[in-house]
Design goal:
This protein is an alpha/beta fold. The protein folds into two domains: 296 residues, TIM Barrel; 63 residues, DNA polymerase, domain 1 (Orthogonal Bundle), CATH 1.10.150. The protein has 13 helices and eleven strands. It has an eight-stranded mixed beta sheet. A three-stranded mixed beta sheet has the order 9-10-11, with no helix packed on it. A hairpin with a 2-residue loop joins strand 1 and strand 2. The protein is globular.
C-alpha cells in the first residue's frame, strides 16, 4: 500500500483524539467534533491527508497531523473502531519510515506538528517503544524542533513514560472512563488504576522530583487525558470528580471529553450517541474547576448527577447563589469576581486595577474592560446599587 494511502487510512478516524485547548466559545452544536479535521492536498500529495486545526497551550494555532503508527490492535475495546477482530482496513508504519514521511509533509506545509498514537500489537511495552523510537528519530536524527504529542499506551513502564516526557511537548493517557466499574463497560480488558491512572501519577512524580531543564525544551511537557463521555452510562458528577482529582493532585493540564459516537460492527453499535452539548457542558464545568476555583461539590448537578443541559454551569450556579446576594464589584475579592458570569480572569485583573483609581459605578466601564456586562449585571452591585441593564427576553 502506498505510504500516503496508508497515512490517510490511519488518520481518518483520529478526530476521536483531542489536542490543543478546546474552545467553548467556538462550540457549534451542529458539529460532531470540536476540532474537526480537514483534508490537505499538496502538489506532491495527490491523496488527501487528514490534518486537524489545533490551538497549543501557548496560544499558537497549528495544523496537526493526528495518526497511529499502526491500526492493528490486540485489545477489544467495545467502542473503538480499531478493536481486534473488527473487519476494517489496517495499515502500519515502521518508526523510521513514518518519521521521514512526516518530515517531508512538514516541509511541504501539510502539517506543523504531530499527535502520535498506536494500536496495541505485541503488548504495551513493545508498542510504546515504537512510538518512542519514532519521536527519537524525529528529534535527534532528523532535527525536528516542532510540536510532538505522544500517547502513553496501557502497560507502558515508568522508564518509557520518562523517555516520552524527554522527547515530547505534550504527553497523554486516555482514561476513557471515570473509574474501573465504568471502564469495564467500555474496555473490559484494561485496568483503570494499574494501566491508565498510574502513568499519570508517574508523570507528576517525574515533574516534581527531576529538573525540567533535561527535557526537550527545558521544561517538562504538560499531560492531558480524554474521556469517552456517555459511553458507559457514567454521570457528569463521576467524570468531574476524577477530573478535579487529576487537576488538584496530578498536575493535569486539561481533560478532554469526546462524546460517544457508535461505530458499526462494535459491541456498542446500537447505543445512541451522546449529544455534543453534553461534552460542551463538561468542558465548561472542567474550566470552572481548573481556572475559576470551583470545587466539584459546588457545581449545579441535577439529582441524577448530570449538569443542566440548557444552561451553562456558571450561570446556573450564579442564579442559585448570587441572584439574591449580588457581588459588590468595588469590594469583592478576586475569587468572588471570578464566579460572576461574564467575568473571566482578564476581566478580574482589569477590575482590580481600575479599583485603585476610583470606584466603578457604571456597566459601560466594565464593558471597556472586556467584561460581558449584560451577562454579569444581574449578579453585581455597583457602589451599592443594582446594575441597570436590559433583561434578556429569551
Amino acid at each position: 500500500m502506498d505510504a500516503i494511502v496508508r497515512l490517510k487510512t490511519l488518520t481518518e478516524q483520529m478526530s476521536l483524539e483531542q489536542d490543543g485547548d478546546a474552545s467553548t466559545s467556538a462550540f457549534d452544536p451542529r458539529s460532531t467534533s470540536i476540532n474537526a479535521p480537514y483534508l490537505d492536498k499538496t502538489e506532491n500529495c495527490p491523496d488527501a491527508v487528514f490534518v486537524h486545526p489545533a490551538i497549543l497551550p501557548n496560544g499558537q494555532k497549528i495544523k496537526l497531523l493526528k495518526t497511529l503508527l499502526t491500526s492493528t490492535c490486540e485489545r477489544d475495546c467495545y467502542y473503538c473502531p480499531f478493536r481486534a477482530g473488527r473487519d476494517m482496513r489496517r495499515a502500519t508504519f515502521q518508526p523510521e519510515e513514518f518519521a521521514r514521511l512526516f518530515l517531508t509533509l512538514a516541509a511541504k506545509g501539510v502539517a506543523a506538528g504531530v499527535f502520535l498514537s498506536s494500536g496495541m500489537a505485541g503488548g504495551g511495552v513493545r508498542s510504546q517503544d515504537k512510538l518512542l523510537d519514532t519521536a527519537d528519530i524525529l528529534r535527534h536524527k532528523l532535527n525536528f524542533h516542532g510540536y510532538i504529542h505522544l500517547k502513553v499506551l496501557p502497560g507502558a513502564e515508568k522508564a518509557q513514560v520518562e523517555r516520552a516526557m524527554l522527547l515530547a511537548d505534550r504527553v497523554s493517557v486516555n482514561l476513557e472512563a471515570p473509574n474501573d466499574t465504568r471502564l469495564a463497560k467500555l474496555a473490559p480488558h484494561k485496568q483503570f488504576v494499574q494501566e491508565l491512572l498510574q502513568p499519570l501519577k508517574w508523570m507528576e512524580e517525574i515533574r516534581r522530583s527531576k529538573p525540567g531543564y533535561v527535557a526537550w525544551k527545558g521544561h517538562w511537557p504538560s499531560s492531558v487525558t480524554q474521556f469517552v463521555a456517555g459511553g458507559a452510562g457514567e454521570t457528569d458528577l463521576e467524570l468531574l470528580t476524577i477530573t478535579g482529582y487529576l487537576y488538584r493532585h496530578l498536575g493535569l493540564k486539561r481533560a478532554y471529553f469526546s462524546p460517544f459516537n457508535p461505530i458499526p460492527d462494535t459491541p456498542l453499535e446500537g447505543q445512541p450517541p451522546t449529544p455534543v452539548i453534553r461534552g460542551h457542558r463538561l468542558y465548561q464545568a472542567s474550566f470552572l474547576i481548573q481556572d475559576y476555583g470551583f470545587e466539584v461539590e459546588e457545581l449545579p448537578f441535577e439529582t441524577d448527577g448530570r449538569l443542566p443541559v440548557h444552561t451553562d454551569p456558571k450561570l446556573a450556579w450564579a442564579r442559585k447563589n448570587l441572584a439574591e446576594s449580588p457581588v459588590e464589584v468595588n469590594q469583592a475579592e478576586r475569587q468572588q469576581l471570578m464566579r460572576v458570569p461574564g467575568i473571566g480572569p482578564k476581566g478580574v485583573e482589569a477590575i482590580l486595577r481600575a479599583r485603585r483609581q476610583g470606584k466603578i459605578r457604571d456597566l459601560s466601564v466594565l464593558k471597556k474592560m472586556g467584561v460581558l456586562a449584560e451577562k454579569a449585571a444581574p449578579f453585581l452591585l455597583l457602589d451599592g446599587q443594582r446594575a441597570v441593564y436590559q433583561p434578556a427576553l429569551f
